[in-house]
Amino acid sequence: MTTSTAHESENWTTLDLAGQWRVTKATDDALRTSVGLDTDDEEWPTISVPGHWQSHPQFATQNGPLLYRKDFELDVPHDGERRFIVVDGLFYQGDVWLDGAYLGDPEGYFIPHAYDITALSKLDTEHVLAIGATCSPQRDKKAKRNITGVFQHWDCIDPNFNPGGIWRGVRIERSGPVRIDALRVLCRDANEARANVRLSARLDSNGDLPVRIITYVNNKVVDEIEKSLASGINSIDWDIDINEPKLWWPWSMGQQNLTDIRVEVVHENIISHSVNRRTGLREVAVQDWVYSINGERIFLKGANLAPTRAMLGDATDIELRRDIELAREAGLDLVRIHGHISRPELYDAADELGMLVWQDFPLQWGYARQIRREAVRQAEEAVNLLGHHPSIMTWCAHNEPFTFNVTPGQSFDIKKMAIPFLAGHQLPTWNKSVLDRWVKRSFEKADVTRPVIAHSGVLPHLPTLDGTDSHLYFGWYHGDERDLPGFAAKIPRLMRFVSEFGAQAIPESSEFIDSSAWPVLDWENLENKFGMQRGNFENHVPVAEFDSFDDWRLATQVYQADVIRYHIETLRRLKYRPTGGFCMFALNDAMPMISWSVLDHQRVPKLGYTALAEACRPVIVTADRLPLSMRPGDQLRIALHVVSDLHRELENATVTATVESIGDPQVWKFEGAIAADDCTLVGHITITAPFAEGPVVLDLTLVSGDVVATNRYHTTVIAN
Q1: Distance (Å) of CA 112 to CA 8, 36, 433
Q2: Residue 7: what pLDDT?
Q3: For the domain with range 3-173, which CATH number is right: 3.90.550.10, 2.30.42.10, 2.40.70.10, 2.60.120.260?
Q4: Using CA atoms, how far apart are residues 713 and 136, in angstroms rounded to an integer?
Q5: Among 22, 276, 677, 713, which is least packed by CB within 10 angstroms?
Q6: What contacts 484, CB < 8 A, 6 or more positions away?
Q7: Model-level pTM?
Q8: Contact 412, 533 (CB under 8 A)
Q9: What is the layout of strands, in order, in the sheet containing 113-116?
Q10: What's the longest Cα–Cα distance across the chain?
Q11: How far is residue 619's CA from residue 353's CA, in Å, rounded to a whole number?
Q12: Residue 101: helix, strand or coil by DSSP?
């Protein structure tokens, strides 16, 4: 028996039921006979809660469902006191019983679910909580029924992985006659003179009761209202103004001032329940995909963030925070929480470190029609759960609402799939045209303070031809990264915001790869289990060209670094004309994988991480990309730009371009000012290829006071 206890003498608010629980397969017989007090579960194995069942050796290959049990002791509640079971996170659906009495069927992996157990807790002091958990495999990527995003996809995680289990805490919570079931805190607008905050509470009352709702800001009362509640759920909205607020800023723009807001519900001069929210006072706006914070525009440099761990319940606070730190150390302003909702601790870290967050709702590819109502409900709950975080700057309803018949590890051949690819963008579909609009409206209704994107990665489509952000995998799925500038010149609207680009590379932490038989690796296993897209590697970094696995791995990382670097340089040269920012794909791995990440599952950086950091420096000096080779006597006219994210002009700047090849170096200089927060064309140079074969190197240097930036480009002169 695994038992937790709360005694009458203790002044407790919550009883944590984390720890070891009993668990067994949730057969029909188990669900019929093993949810009550009289079950002998001593022979059942134990499992950690919070956690995932695949972390348990006995259930490592299971898809569930499983039945969890926990015995606990609890004092009988006093008059006017209420008790609740709160399940903070369950992958993905379940059933909950207390002492054999059925409480409900939670759905939604990131949503807290609360159940009133006041009446049951009056009957005895010994109890058993039973939770049936199921997370069914989603094998049809065109008609998924679980809203679990990348956890049951295959971009970042082994397709055979099942995230099922009680992955966050379970607790007993007590309150007075009125409980705050949900509290939404949204900063509507903010400036140095005043901030306006909209609060919305969902109050669960056990009768028709008068209450006072008191709002505190940094422990000072700023608002007090009286309400008469009806029995059951009551929804209440109110606004508060905060004078001369300390504003919250992204780390590159200012301080991360945080504000504590507490709401108390008082009945008969006794606090019935209270909830705290730490928030930041700031204003977000966007126009033509250019975002501004507190009225100041910002060019967003970002990366997609996969789950910190595939077993998200096992991720520590330190690991979650470290992912945000690594993004900031790379010079990023933004992380896109790609296809999932993470743990609250990650958002706390983003708030504290000044990292902006693009928050995806966990819809990834195709879904069955039956999920629409549930998706709308969960979108509203996402705002309740996360809306107070100042770091979150936008919601996205759905990532890539397409229905391709692509299997794990399969290379995406744009030539073969061009027609279905374009049709998926242009033609109305249920996911894109119905589901996404409903989810978008749900976000917009719940949160009027942030921009909402219906879907990510959808090209302009009928009837409005608006389009959204772009996913442009030049140099991986199609073309060459050198083609990007020409593509941008032809279709500039597709460059307004590029939220995915990159290339796969082999990680340093590659213990899952048996390289001893190089070049005969277990390619099928690497494709099906670890996400490798072998066909794309053969197109860009063919195995046959390398004598060893280490040489090939290095080459894949060099290639990935080049793709990242030149995508970012191109997009930064288009700063605000028309590009508002980018998010490369991706920052991290959630488990051992061959992926687009620049940090592997152990957070060992690939060369792409260094390229990302260098390309995202506040000031960069760039040139047009040199061709792979030149012929003797060829001439190139090269444009030179300086891109500055600083909000001050660089005075008396000097840009030096040096071309080295056979013979004396050619030197060109620019002297003048570099505009603040802009891309400045500083001139053109002409490079003439010598008549002797060999390398040609272009070195760029910018110096302005304490600001120094360098860059280097290569080509080779080939006679034939």
Answers
A1: 26, 23, 30
A2: 46
A3: 2.60.120.260
A4: 51
A5: 276
A6: 472, 474, 566, 567, 570
A7: 0.94
A8: yes
A9: 14-16, 170-175, 82-87, 113-116
A10: 96
A11: 21
A12: strand
